[in-house]
Amino acid sequence: MVQSTASVDYSWVGVDVSKASLDSYCLATQRTWRCPNTATGLQLLQAHLSTLPHPAVVCEASGGYEQTLVVTLATAGVRVSVVNPLRVRDFARAMGRRAKTDPLDAACIAYFGQVMVPEAVVLASDVEQRIKALVTRRQQLVEMLSAEKNRRRQLQGPLREDVEAHIEWLQERIRQLDAEIQSLATHHQEWAERQALLQSPQGIGPTVSIGLLLYLPELGHLNRKQIAALVGVAPFNRDSGGYRGQRHIWGGRATVRSLLYLATLTAIRYNPPLRAYYQQLLARGKRTKVAIVACMRKLLTCLNAMVRDNTPWDADKVSALSQTP
Fold this sequence. Notes:
Elements: E1 11-17, E2 21-26, E3 31-36, H1 39-49, E4 55-60, H2 67-75, E5 79-83, H3 85-94, H4 102-116, H5 126-152, H6 158-186, H7 189-198, H8 206-215, H9 224-231, E6 239-240, E7 243-244, H10 254-270, H11 272-283, H12 288-309, H13 315-321
Parallel strand pairs: 1-4, 4-5
Antiparallel strand pairs: 1-2, 2-3, 6-7
Helix pairs in contact: 5-6, 5-8, 7-8, 8-10, 9-12, 10-11, 10-12, 11-12, 11-13
């Protein structure tokens, strides 16, 4: 169990992860070392960390190359955090650091960890990891399906038939994955309960509810402004002096935002409170895209409150809430 950061003086270690190597830097000792990104290299890294009092490892999300490192260290009881590379890059610029090498990157990541104290990774259960892998694969197949449908319009003859056969295979495989995902989620009691809660409003189906559970575990644990900013549906100011710029959403979790967008498109058609809110925004002169994003934020706020209070969708409460932007 990870100890509170308020009572622990951590030895911060930054690790720059690549496909071939792990470059590490320890702030306490100011030492740099390199290990291969292999099982043997991870053993060497663990040996270095074992000599430090309360090691805390920070690495960037590196397209999956960091996964083995994170699982190995977290399983061994080491505090490990995965951070957005963009945040580290901005941090380096703020420090005036322009040079870029793997050891320098590792040092910057370590400084970032010490200053920002990012949250430690909490490992998912085996069932959750399996569901996440299946959901990720499903998204890949959906993207392939969309691409094949676009290609089909431009083809004739045998090539079109070949693409149509592939489209049929993709559709069948997606249906099989949906059944497998739902079966795993149903046999996970906590997931089954929370999934049922999330599916109580019209517009949220099995795929969206599972995706929210997987990619937004903070749901129900943050306030409405924090959860909106985390997903990337909160408008940010662009003001300076007398200038008042337009508000724009920025950043956030693209995967969650895509799921929320799909759910919102259905909700503004079939969910009475959100449909009324959407029409109200249009009547006030809001552009379609702005109105949809506002409905996404409203839906997310409601889902966050539902999970927090463990209460299902209440159309009357949402209607009252929708009277204010």
